[in-house]
Amino acid sequence: MKYQFSENLKYMKSSAIRNLLKYIQQPGMISFGGGMPNPETFPIEKIMEITSDVLSNYGKNALQYGTTDGLKPLREEIVKFILKDENIKCNPENVFITTGSQQALYALSKIFANPGEKVILEAPTYVGMISSLNANAVDSESIEMDENGMIVEKLEDKIKSMVDNNRKPKFIYTIPTFQNPAGYTMPLDRRKHLIEISKKYEIPIIEDNPYGDLRYSGSKVPTLKSLDDDVIYLGTFSKVMAPGLRTGYVIASEEVTAKMNLLKQALDLAGDSFSQYIAYEYLKNGIIYDQVPKTVELYKRKRNVMLEALDENVENAEWSKPDGGMFLWLRLKKNVDTEKLLEKAIEKKVAYVPGSAFYHKNPELNTMRLNFTYAEDDDIREGIKRLSMVISEA
Ligand SMILES: Cc1ncc(COP(=O)(O)O)c(C=O)c1O
Asked: 174 CB less than 6 Å from ligand 1?
């Protein structure tokens, strides 16, 4: 049979990162390409204990379909955790459990924007948001970033011109803390300015904060959500527990969570009950507070190793110096295309993600994302030496 697929598919592309996987598995390859947490940080023993407790204590519910909003006791624990962790005040009715925050990105794109309508992104931005927009045929405009994240000073003019053209953006998507891919963090004054603009033009902000707990230097900056209750906040257990459990959450007004509920009924009825019970025990027993410092210690060391190796070896490039998260952003001279350069890098057995993967439109071709949390320390040093050779030859 000759299948006739829907028009929707025409915008959907496989992510450059998934395409990289085939190279990363080659023997001897040092990869700074992945975005996966280091498995050393997974609390395997604790999860073994929790799993057995969950099955003994709640087995019949944990293996049953759950409610679409998510497990109530987990939502109650998230309310307590997020107050302590990020000073966000909310009720269980404001917490909506998603299958990773990736599902929230897809759902929010669908809830807020019709096909062809526009939203505002940072450039570069998270690749999973780009695929969610593409899957929903949603268009975008981007705001450049500097080392302080989105240049909010440029946002208002952009919005004005979009409004003048009858293309008012449906939301502003930002990762203000340890941005993926760039590693930048937005300071408080810019956060306040961003909120002011969002209020003035009545454009909701979506704040994606998967890395907020992974800080290695500097001091905490308040989340947008703690400054303004209208912000739609995305959290996840992927970086502070384990991504395989696919448990994330949205904190938003009940008006928004009700729409999320309608859509989730069509997506998967409800999230994974078993994982939600595990996340519940993980929070309730305070295991998260023992685990996160261990992850921070490991990642901080690896960040320092990579920054030192870059300082010692790499010329003709500049890079971000992230205070947290998992990535840094490296920029070469304008005429170097890192997609083409990747072939040379693969020959020298080092991999990265070309920056073009992180732009919805108009990519900056001379950029790349480097993950510093996955490789062994010695491999980070060796990989950066290899990369420096590739860069010098370019
Ligand atoms: C900025 C950002 N948002 C969302 C996600 C998705 O996380 P998950 O679906 O595992 O919760 C990631 C994962 O790397 C991310 O970096």
From this structure: no
